Every structure is written in structure tokens, then in C-alpha cells.
Amino acid sequence: MKTTNPEDALLYMETELNSSMATLAPGETYAMDTEWQPTRLSRQLKTVTSAELFRILFLATPSAIGFLLSGEFGVFVSGKLIARPYDRRGIAMEDIPLQAVSPESLVQLRKEIKTRTI
User: Fold this and answer.
1) Model confidence at 9: pLDDT above 70
2) Is the distance from CB of 41 to CB of 74 less than 8 angstroms?
3) Residue that wins the pLDDT comparison between 65 and 48
4) Burial grade of 103 (CB within 10 A; 0-12, 13-18, 19 or more)
5) Which residue has the higher pLDDT, 50 or 108?
6) Where are the domains of the chain?
7) What is the pTM of this model?
8) Cα radius of gyration (the chain)
9) Cα–Cα distance between 11 and 34 in angstroms, integer?
10) SS3 per-residue string spanning the chain
11) How far is the first Cα of the chain from the last one, in angstroms, to the nearest whole number?
């Protein structure tokens, strides 16, 4: 379906890592392998890191029972999303499993964490 509304346009973003500089003698060659890692993301891209693309930045906000973790982002590899809390001395506490993630699906995180569990 063709649309004239810019808000309905399909968006595509591609980034590339340029090859490193290499000095080659006559007859020598150089190759650099790359991987293509597509991911899902809705509109209004906020920032990009090596692990994910953020539409809504990852937030931790106070709640009645502890805090609410929220965010909307795309990831480049499948895996398990975890929260790794730290105590006031900066020592890592027990990881909190959040959800499975995949590049095929937009991650929509909204998880309330009880303070007593961390």
C-alpha cells in the first residue's frame, strides 16, 4: 500500500564499520569479514549502543513496592534480559531474570521489582 503520509513510511537504518587501514605491497590482498545483525525498533530512535537500540530509554523509577524497570528497545542478539542490582557499596547482588529477548521482536519491558528481593 502506497502512502503519502511521512509518519506511515517504512524506516530502515544501516550502519557500517569501515575496514581498518592496511598497507599492502603489490599483489597482496586484505579482507575483513562482517556480520549483518538486523533488529526491530519502532519510531523515535533515542540512542544506539553496541548491544541495543533504544526508543524509550531504559528507566528505573520508584514504585509502591520497590521500583519499576521499563524501556522499549531492539537487541542485536537473542538472549535473556537480566537486571544486575548493586548494593550501596557497589557490590553486585543476585541477578534478577526479566525476559527472553530476540532481534525479531521489539523488547517492551515493564517489570516491577520488589525491594525486599534485592
Assistant:
1) no
2) yes
3) 65
4) middle
5) 108
6) 38-117
7) 0.56
8) 20
9) 23
10) CCCCCHHHCCCCCCCCCCCCCCCCCCCCCCCCCCCCCCCCCCCCCCEECCCEEEEEEEEEEECCCEEEEEEEEEECCCEEEEECCECCCCCECCCEEEEEECCCCCEEEEEEEEHHHC
11) 50
